[in-house]
Amino acid sequence: MLTEGTKAPDVSIKIADGEFIKLSDLAGKKVVLYFYPKNGTTGCTKEAISMRNHFDEITARGAVVIGVSPDSVESHERFRKQHNLPFYLGSDPDHKVAEAFGAWGDKKMFGKVYKGIKRSTFIIDEQGVIVKVFDKVSTETHGHDVLAYL
């Protein structure tokens, strides 16, 4: 997983059919880039709602919020509408964005090891440097935790 003080990779994140956000296009703004496993699951829904509930305060501090999971753009649109999510959701089905940040790798559940998203958040400053990494995320308070850091 990338660490604080590291220059963020200049990845391109698919946010809609034919639409991408490139991190370098956000130079001059803070970016809250959070990785989550799957739309509609209990933990991911709690985390998204927590981010939504603090969205206005986070953006008032000059930050852009982008959630990234392997889900499709269509799944993201349903998830956004269902929970009134005002921020970008990026589709990363081949997990290249997650891999670039070290948010993809071995996970363990019920004694089985498998590959998946490591729930994590990277706060990137206006110059593209990672200034904070949340590698242990409380899904219920994550929006507040990000806001408190900002």
Please explain how this structure is put together.
Helices cover 29% and strands 32% of the residues. With 150 residues, it is an alpha/beta fold. The protein has one domain: Glutaredoxin (3-Layer(aba) Sandwich). The protein has a five-stranded mixed beta sheet with strand order 5-4-3-8-9. Strands 1-2 form a two-stranded antiparallel ribbon. The protein has a two-stranded antiparallel sheet with strand order 6-7. Strand 8 (120-124) and strand 9 (130-134) form a beta hairpin. Helix 1 packs across helix 5. The mean pLDDT is 96.
Average pLDDT figure? 96
Unreliable spans are: none
Which bin fits the share of residues in helices?
25-40%
CATH superfamily: Glutaredoxin
> And the CATH topology?
Glutaredoxin
Q: How would you describe the shape?
A: globular
What class do helices, strands and sheet pairing give?
A: alpha/beta
Task: Say what oligomer this is.
Answer: single chain
Instruction: Please list the strands of the largest sheet in the order they lie side by side.
Output: 5-4-3-8-9
Q: What is this entry, summarized?
A:
This protein has 150 residues and is of the alpha/beta class.
Secondary structure elements and pairings:
Layout: E1 12-16, E2 19-22, E3 30-35, H1 42-53, H2 55-60, E4 63-69, H3 73-83, E5 88-91, H4 96-101, E6 104-109, E7 112-117, E8 120-124, E9 130-134, H5 142-149
Parallel strand pairs: 3-4, 4-5
Antiparallel strand pairs: 1-2, 3-8, 6-7, 8-9
Helix pairs in contact: 1-5
Which keywords apply here?
29% helix, five-stranded mixed sheet, 5 helices, Glutaredoxin, alpha/beta, globular, 9 strands, 150 residues
